[in-house]
Specification:
The complex is a heterodimer of chains A (about 300) and B (about 250). Chain A is built from twelve helices and no strands. Chain A is mainly α. In chain A, helix 1 packs across helix 11 and helix 2 packs across helix 9. With about 250 residues, chain B is an alpha/beta fold. In chain B, about 40% of the residues lie in helices and about 25% in strands. The chains are: A mainly alpha (about 300), B alpha/beta (about 250). The structure holds adenosine-5'-diphosphate and magnesium ion (MG).
Chain lengths: ~300, ~250
């Protein structure tokens, strides 16, 4: 059972990561590869604060989320001031740089990883309670992104992606919207990191490598960019796949490359044969509720 | 009376190509200025410089007496400057009505906090904006296409939507870049009526247009631009009668 719980939690966390990344890249149109490092910032902040500073786990998790959020804003603010393309470059530097710092400072446990992270809920209420927590957060994140995408904010994001200059010409501020989208999406990744840390109770830098970025991107692209269910389907599929391969009992030296090839292959196949992903996005933005009357009825 | 918009000694060149040379232009509340000149004269560039799409090299632009130089494009628009595009630049993924709803002066939906915690503000804004949008669309004869995608409309109607969108934002100064290009005859009267009404409400309007009849019927004053410089000012009727300008306009 413990094994199954572990898988469910991992899948839940990847759904959260993919959904939040979909907000950034799909809805926000922002290209970043730093999602794993915000995941790491959440995990490490929460782990260090709770183990070494005696912070209550719930507070530590909140702090983990907040640190990821603030760090992402600190990254986005200067780069988006210049132009959207700088975010990608800055995010590469950030991903590599922060991970390098984590590997080289003492309080993170360095390359060997950070152990003995205090557990949460499990002692008092059993592992099931943590599964419920992760799934509840997952559902909340899916609903949140869905709600935002269909709200007035979603209308604005659509317009901003369509034509940024025209977006400015009606008095809208694309830069702050992008910063908010990036901050929220990265904060959610931080939350996922905190949740990861207090269940598995061990974190190490290699869990947050740049490769994770392509895994998350693959989930979003294969599932369906800019859709509610796409990242969910993508995360499920791409997590089920390695699990299935692991049943073949291949040695790790073969397993890694095979997964890499499989993921790259999938992206290529989808790019050529189904660029819209498994769940295709609608081309037209629609609000959650249309006002009554002829609006929306005749289409 | 000082103008709503004052352009003073504005200059700009791209790698030696002069697109604006010591431009002085005053747009007054309630009046409509027609900006004419051949293709490549620098009319669109002037709008780009005024609105902040392109930075100028020297000079000043004042809106209601305060300089715009340090403001970004969207801030200038928020400050009361509105413009349309020669090539529409609508939002293709949004229905016509949503192209307008998003273009109000204040759009609370552009802040995440409001989406999460300010439902009442959003609702209040939506109903006001919707009434306004429906009113503007009605005046332009677009009421029946409110729910269509802009890309499904003929080009002429897209141009009208572009103007309609620019009218959503309570502008003090409105710059229209070739609003009639590609617009069929039947919209002529509607466009004339709408622009005139806007001016009567106190907005300072400047129209770039090749449709000379349109601009002659509409404008109080004409400005002739050529090669980045203002060559002449006067009534549009005078300008088009001037043989020298006519030659510049049509080429030899
Ligand atoms: N971004 C730019 N870079 C270089 N040249 C430009 C740029 N924008 C406009 N121009 C040049 O400025 C001149 C004026 O163009 P424009 O303002 O579009 O004229 P008009 O609107 O009167 O037809 C043209 O020669 C054009 O090539
Ligand atoms: Mg032009």
């Amino acid at each position: 059972m413990e094994y199954l719980y572990g898988i469910i939690i991992i899948i839940g966390l990847y759904v959260i990561l993919a959904t939040s990344f979909n907000l950034i890249i799909g809805y926000g149109g922002l290209v970043s590869i730093a999602h794993p490092v915000f995941f790491a910032l959440g995990a490490y902040t929460s782990a260090v604060l709770s183990r070494d500073f005696g912070a209550p786990v719930l507070l530590a998790m909140l702090a983990g989320t907040l640190v990821a959020l603030l760090a992402s804003i600190a990254l986005a603010l200067p780069s988006l001031r210049v132009s959207g393309d700088y975010l990608l470059i800055a995010s590469i530097g950030f991903q590599l740089g922060i991970l390098e710092v984590i590997k080289n400072v003492r309080f993170t446990g360095g390359p060997g990883g950070f152990t003995n992270i205090p557990p949460f809920l499990i002692r008092e209420f059993g592992r099931e309670s943590y599964v419920v927590l992760v799934l509840a957060v997952m559902v909340a994140v899916i609903l949140l992104v869905w709600w935002i995408s269909r709200s007035d904010y979603g209308r604005a994001m659509s317009a901003m992606r369509d034509d940024e200059l025209a977006f400015s010409s009606i008095g809208r501020d694309a830069m702050w919207m992008k910063i908010a989208i990036f901050g929220l999406g990265s904060g959610i990744a931080g939350l996922a990191g905190s949740l990861y840390a207090h269940y598995f109770r061990f974190i190490a830098p290699e869990q947050f490598e740049i490769l994770q970025s392509s895994v998350i991107l693959t989930m979003v692209v294969v599932g369906g960019l800019r859709t509610t269910w796409g990242p969910v389907v993508g995360a499920l599929l791409l997590q089920a796949l390695p699990q299935a391969i692991s049943f073949l009992h291949l040695p790790p030296s073969v397993l890694g490359p095979i997964q890499g090839i499989l993921f790259t292959g999938l992206v290529l196949v989808f790019m050529f044969f189904r660029p819209q992903g498994l769940v295709p996005a609608k081309e037209v933005w629609r609000a959650v509720q249309r006002p009554t009357g002829k609006a929306g009825e005749n289409r | 009376m000082a103008g709503v918009l004052e352009v003073r000694d504005l200059s700009k060149s791209f790698d030696g190509i002069v697109v604006a040379s010591h431009i002085d232009l005053t747009l007054k509340s309630g009046s409509i200025v027609g900006l004419i000149g051949p293709n490549g004269a620098g009319k669109t560039s002037l709008f780009n410089l005024i609105s902040g799409v392109v930075k100028f090299d020297s000079g000043t632009v004042l809106l209601d007496g305060s300089p715009l130089d340090r403001l970004k494009f969207h801030q200038r628009v928020r400050g009361g400057l509105s413009r349309t595009w020669q090539h529409t630049r609508l939002f293709p993924s949004l229905p016509v009505i949503d192209n307008l709803l998003i273009a109000t002066h204040d759009y609370p939906g552009e802040r995440l906090v409001n989406v999460l915690f300010g439902r009442r503000r959003l609702k209040a804004h939506d109903s006001v904006a919707r009434d306004k949008a429906v009113g503007i669309l009605g005046k332009m004869g677009l009421a029946n296409v409110a729910d269509d995608l802009v890309s499904d409309l003929p080009y002429g109607q897209q141009k009208l939507v572009g103007v309609a969108r620019a009218l959503m934002g309570d502008a003090k100064c409105l710059l229209l870049d070739e609003p009639m290009a590609g617009v069929e005859g039947q919209a002529y009267a509607a466009m004339q009526r709408v622009v005139r009404e806007v001016a009567e409400s106190g907005v300072a309007v400047c129209v770039v247009e090749h449709n000379i009849a349109f601009i002659r019927d509409l404008c109080d004053e004409g400005v002739f631009m050529f090669s980045g410089a203002i060559m002449a000012r006067g009534s549009v009727a005078e300008l088009i009668r001037d043989p020298q300008l006519t030659e510049l306009y049509f080429g030899h």
